[in-house]
Specification:
Layout lengths: L8 H6 L2 H11 L6 H20 L7 E5 L5 H7 L4 E5 L3 H4 L9 E2 L13 E7 L8 H11 E12 L18 H12 L16 H10 L3 E8 L15 H5 L2 E8 L1
Parallel strand pairs: 1-2, 1-4, 2-3, 4-5
Antiparallel strand pairs: 5-7, 6-7
Helix pairs in contact: 3-4
Length: about 250
C-alpha cells in the first residue's frame, strides 16, 4: 500500500514540537477546565483547516459535523467563515451554555443538507464516538461541493488516548476499562465503550478514503505530532499506536 501523500507545506511548517507540547499541555485541562481546552483546540483546528483549504476561509461555508458545545464557532466565524454545526446530542449542545444560532440537531450519518452545499466539511474527534463512522464520512463527502475540502480527524483506538478518560486500561479491553473507571469514580465514564466510544483504526480510515468514489485522498497525517514524526503514518501497525490521532484530507470530485 503506498504511503499517503504529504500535507500542504504551509501547515507542515506549523507542526512543530512546540505546538505538539502546547496541545498536550492543554489536554490536561479537558476535564478540569473544558473551556480552556476546547477553545485552544478550536483555534488550532481553524488554523489547520484554513491551511489545508489553501485559501482564506472568508466567505466559505464550513460545516462542523459533531460540533458539540459550540467552542469551534468563534474560531471559524472569526476568520470570516459561514459556520454551521451538526450535533445529535442535545445535552452536549448545551453543555457549555453557548448560544447555538448556527447549530442543527442531527446525526452525522444523515446530514440534513443538500448535496454539494458546503465548501468545507470537517469533523474533529467524533468518528470514534459513532458506531458507523464511514457512513458519516460518506455523508461528509456528499454534502461538500465539487472541489471542496473534507477533513476527518479522529482518535485511534490503539493509541494512548484511545480509551479517553479511562486511560491506558483500554488496552485490556474497553468493557474492563469502563468497569474499572466506574469502581474508582463511582460513575460511568462519559465515553462508554460500545455505547458512545468505539474502536477505530487508521487502516480502516485509509481504506475508506482510498475507495471513496466521491472524493480523492489528498493526505493523511497524525494531527498532534511534530512534522518529523509524521512518517509513522506510512508504517502499518506502528501508526495505530504512535499516530494517536489521524487526519484524513480529501477533495470532492
Amino acid at each position: 500500500m503506498p504511503a499517503p501523500p504529504p500535507p500542504p507545506a504551509v501547515f507542515a511548517r506549523r507542526a512543530t514540537l512546540a505546538r505538539a507540547w502546547r496541545l498536550l499541555r492543554e489536554f490536561g485541562y479537558e476535564q478540569s477546565d473544558p473551556d480552556r481546552f476546547y477553545s485552544a483546540l478550536a483555534e488550532d483546528t481553524a488554523v489547520m483547516v484554513a491551511d489545508l483549504y489553501g485559501e482564506p476561509l472568508s466567505g466559505a461555508t464550513v460545516l462542523d459535523v459533531g460540533g458539540g458545545p459550540g467552542f469551534f464557532a468563534d474560531a471559524f466565524t472569526g476568520r470570516g467563515a459561514q459556520y454551521l454545526s451538526v450535533e445529535p446530542d442535545a445535552g452536549e449542545m448545551h453543555a457549555a451554555g453557548i448560544d447555538h444560532r448556527t447549530c442543527v440537531r442531527a446525526q452525522g450519518q444523515h446530514l440534513p443538507l443538500r448535496t454539494g452545499s458546503v465548501d468545507v466539511c470537517y469533523s474533529s474527534n467524533v468518528a470514534e464516538h459513532t458506531a458507523a463512522p464511514w457512513a458519516m464520512a460518506d455523508e461528509m463527502v456528499r454534502v461538500t461541493r465539487p472541489g471542496g475540502l473534507i477533513v476527518l480527524s479522529y482518535t485511534l483506538w490503539w493509541g494512548p488516548f484511545g480509551g479517553h478518560e479511562t486511560g491506558l486500561m483500554h488496552y485490556l479491553g474497553g468493557h474492563r476499562a469502563a468497569r474499572r473507571y466506574t469502581r474508582r469514580h463511582g460513575r460511568l465514564p462519559k465515553n462508554l465503550y460500545g455505547v458512545s466510544l468505539f474502536p477505530i483504526t487508521a487502516q480502516a480510515g485509509l481504506d475508506w478514503a482510498r475507495r471513496s468514489r466521491g472524493a480523492e485522498l489528498c493526505t493523511a497525517f497524525p494531527r498532534y505530532l511534530p512534522r518529523w514524526a509524521w512518517p509513522v503514518v506510512a508504517v502499518p501497525g506502528l501508526r495505530e499506536v504512535a499516530a494517536t490521532n489521524l487526519v484524513l484530507v480529501l477533495r470532492r470530485r
